[in-house]
Amino acid sequence: MSRPKNQNYKGHGLSKGKEREQRASIRFKTTLMNTLMDVLRHRPGWVEVKDEGEWDFYWCDVSWLRENFDHTYMDEHVRISHFRNHYELTRKNYMVKNLKRFRKQLEREAGKLEAAKCDFFPKTFEMPCEYHLFVEEFRKNPGITWIMKPVARSQGKGIFLFRRLKDIMDWRKGTAGKKLTGLEAPPARNTVNPSGSHDSRSSDDQKDEIPVENYVAQRYIENPYLIGGRKFDLRVYVLVMSYIPLRAWLYRDGFARFSNTRFTLSSIDDQYVHLTNVAVQKTSPDYHPKKGCKWMLQRFRQYLASKHGPEAVEALFSDMDNIFVRSLQSVQKVIISDKHCFELYGYDILIDQNLKPWLLEVNASPSLTASSQEDYELKTCLLEDTLHVVDMEARLTGREKRVGGFDLMWNDGPVSREEGTPDLSGMGNFVTNTHLGCINDRSNQLRQLFRSLQSQKKASS
Known about the structure:
32% of the residues lie in helices and 19% in strands.
């Protein structure tokens, strides 16, 4: 990306040579005071930069991006932690809009069977601009449960369930005084998102806040898979290094977040039953901080295998891989792919009683604050491995299929577990290179990887 160096532009990475190997240390900056800061400060050769100092690596929040990205000159090696218009995937209304458009495109180009692979999000309407379409759909299926979610808030804020049109009328009246016309105009593609300021005090799933509330009405999954009678969803981490070509890594670890109260559809007003967000659950009167409400994905996968057998579990996790890839492909052409950007997404997936996974939302800034020691260890390893893949130190060859807990899932096409280039013509024995919920022996893998890279370097010098 070349930008004119005039007085309105701030340059970064300029004081050191362009060649990555020439940098003795990596200057980092972040405003997030949580696990991330611990990881950055402990990384060998990385030095923290305060205030207006020059930096090579910035784990920024989305408000900085909105205000500064277009006025910042970045040298070749510089990296920041978001794509310019990440909200195409992480705002609930845009995510659905892009998925619907992508589904239509697939149907046109590859037929209905291929398009059906995008049927992993519940029927959704943007409010208030699709209100009349919603009412039409609502009347076709009286008595079912719907869920209303603000498009740009997180931690379960502003969400409610309803079954009667009257409830939505009351909501509509409540928003009537809030300049509804402003709600209906989405930001122009590839321009600044008109969202307002981001609340930097919140460390959990930061989102763009917008001046006027825009909601989505979504069909509520009434038959969630239950464990111990309780509802849960899954948090899975996907790291995107590039959109053109699409290059995405899937982390082996993640967790299931449980609600604290047994599931029932007879009390749709009880958020402790229906919302699994930790921010909501930890306010429950019988929440145990030490016990928490999370299972690691390995435990979840083993539990399912003992109940349903390994084949059913393999099929479920394969369907989840499909969600990650298709959702990224749906925004591939609208996200501004910039070589300075990477993004660690937090996917929220719900499983129903038929073992079908549903995409609830994608978070641009998944919570990096730990809720327990186990959570702290997961997030520390996740962030260390993210930095290994981003590779500011320029140690990798670019041909790696695994780095620590990350497996390369898509590299301008599906990545095979087998060595060498697979024959994709029949996709007969093709097995995707994903290991979600499998053993994460990252320490051994990293030791072997860096030892092998070092010996390669010695051999070539």
